[in-house]
Design a protein that fits this description.
By secondary structure, the chain is an alpha/beta fold. The chain contains five helices and seven strands, in the order H-E-H-E-H-E-E-H-E-H-E-E. It has a seven-stranded mixed sheet. A hairpin with a 2-residue loop joins strand 6 and strand 7.
Length: about 160
């Protein structure tokens, strides 16, 4: 169990897109692997990954999100790095990348999301009517391992080919 205090605009994990990402993360987590949480918000996905034994860090464009994530890490006695470092500045890859962000942001960040993913990419926060805009992105280089629907939200687990 994790203690999460929501910040302004950042939740506690009850949203269907967060639940989908958490379910996918639990299925994919291998202790000792690395994880990057893109759009970390309250930090729940990076904190859950750390709880599962992964080496996690989180990034977000909102300073308020980083403050909330750091606060939640402290509440849980965890030392997880959270920052506003832009995704394009990461030069290394992560075994797992999770992005619980809307489809338009996934499209915009696709080159960096793909480049930073060594094995598994979990995409959540996708409204069902926007899923089609993403399929052309990952048709080469990734295969869909799992598609979860919690209407109207979709979570996709992609594996690098």
């Amino acid at each position: 169990d994790l203690c999460i205090e929501p910040g302004l605009g950042f939740g506690t994990g009850e949203h269907p897109s967060t639940r989908g990402a958490l379910n996918a993360l639990v299925a994919e987590a291998n202790p000792g692997e690395s994880l990057l949480d893109v759009g970390c918000g309250s930090g729940i996905l990076a904190l859950a990954a750390t709880h599962l034994g992964l080496h996690a860090e989180g990034i977000d464009i909102a300073e308020d999100a980083i403050g909330s994530a750091q606060h939640n890490a402290g509440l849980n006695g965890m030392n997880v790095p959270f920052s506003t470092t832009p995704l394009h500045e990461f030069q290394r890859t992560f075994d797992v990348v999770v992005a619980n962000i809307h489809a338009e942001a996934i499209v915009e960040l696709w080159p960096e999301l793909s480049r930073c993913t060594a094995r598994t990419l979990i995409l959540s926060g996708i409204l069902e009517d926007r899923e089609a805009m993403l399929k052309p992105l990952f048709m080469s280089g990734f295969s869909v391992q799992l598609r979860q629907l919690d209407a109207p939200w979709i979570t996709l687990t992609l594996e690098r080919l």
